[in-house]
Amino acid sequence: MIKHHPYFHHIKSSVFGFMFLLPTSLFALSLLLLACNGFSVFYMYLPGYIKSSPEPIKLLPENLSGDKTVTKLVSSVMYAVKEENPPGVLKTHLSLVKKPNFSMVPIGKASVFKPKQARLSRQILRTLGSGTKPKGFFSSKVKTFFRNSKCKSRFFMTWISPIESLSDRELLAIESVFKSHPKACLVIVSNSLDSKKGSVVLKPFSDMGFKLIAVHPDFDYIFKNTYAETWFNRLKNGNINPGEVSLGQNLSNLLRLALLYKYGGVYLDTDVLVLKSINRLRNVISAQSINPETKNWSRLNNAVLIFDQNHPLLFKFIQEFALTFDGNRWGHNGPYLVSRVVERVTGRPGLNFTVLPPSAFYPVDWTRIRSLFQGPQNETHSNWLKLKLGQIQRQSYAIHLWNRQSKQVKVQEGSIIHHVISDCCIFCNSLKSKF
């Protein structure tokens, strides 16, 4: 038998040990390589999104400080904002977060980025109308109109819809303004009514000596030197998602605020019938509903607004719109906006405004508006209609018809609305065609 040197045995043991561990080492090395490769494949970097800053607001009368709770949901890309309402703190005091110009569109289990610029541009063009007016047209026309008309009061309406959508109901709303305010001036901001067809529609009012004009909106001029200016520029540049709610509706919400801030006066929705003079009212907004337990208002509405020029509450409304705009939540930029702002600022010195009860402009909630279109069904119902009509005639300056709920409802003989039409119409020979 051949005897090997002890050193040879040591080398032999090392070689066999290495060969035994080799598969395990290669397996570990493979896992390490796969992990590195996977990290490089599934890691995605969005340059500048979190660090990007929005276009700065030009007007900063107060120091902006956030008071919203931001909850991180997924990595550092998506955030949820929870609104809180601490006493004495303005929710408008928060910084803007610039949204990326794309949306997440699920495809199976994956997601891709879909640009929104084309869709946004189409919406804006459709809302603003295809016609254009020369620079300064709006300001010159409105200024000349007010100077030459010697208005006792100023009223504003907006109509950002096709002229074909204008019905007898909207025309009756115009009639009601002049029935109660024959020496008033009415400016209808509308691209469709500022046309040859629009002139024909409004001619009967001019023929009777009433002072009104329809003028194509110049958003750049109307929004100038307010928070609305920066918001609108970002919208035009595709840096704001217009959302699923009608962009025209949201522009109307902002337009009414900016018009009153620039000129002062009364804003009315086109489904509001004026019942009596409101010339003695100043700087008022009305509750839509009240809390039955506390008797305090629970929600305000922006269908009727009466404010002086440059009123600070209007400034805060505009600021809130620009800083908290959400195009996917109905009412967020309208009734809910004025409600949350007034709730925060009530009691603060220097604002000088009054919240009227629902009976002033909203004597019937939208859930019950159809009852005002019904004629008497029996003696009990007839008595109720008489009592309700008397109450409206005594307490209400106007009545909001809530078009969304009542547009298709017919006016029945002897109904409250039938009596209201008789009281506020001018061209009463066509009473039966109203609505």
UniProtKB/TrEMBL annotation:
Q: Boundaries of each Alpha 1,4-glycosyltransferase domain copy?
A: 307-430
> What are the record keywords, sorted?
Membrane, Transmembrane, Transmembrane helix
Superkingdom, natural source: Eukaryota
Q: Where are the transmembrane segments?
A: 20-46
Q: What is an example of a Pfam family matching this protein?
A: Gly_transf_sug
Record-linked SUPFAM superfamilies: Nucleotide-diphospho-sugar transferases
What is the protein name for this chain? Alpha 1,4-glycosyltransferase domain-containing protein
Question: What is the species listed in this Swiss-Prot or TrEMBL entry?
Answer: Gossypium barbadense (Sea Island cotton)
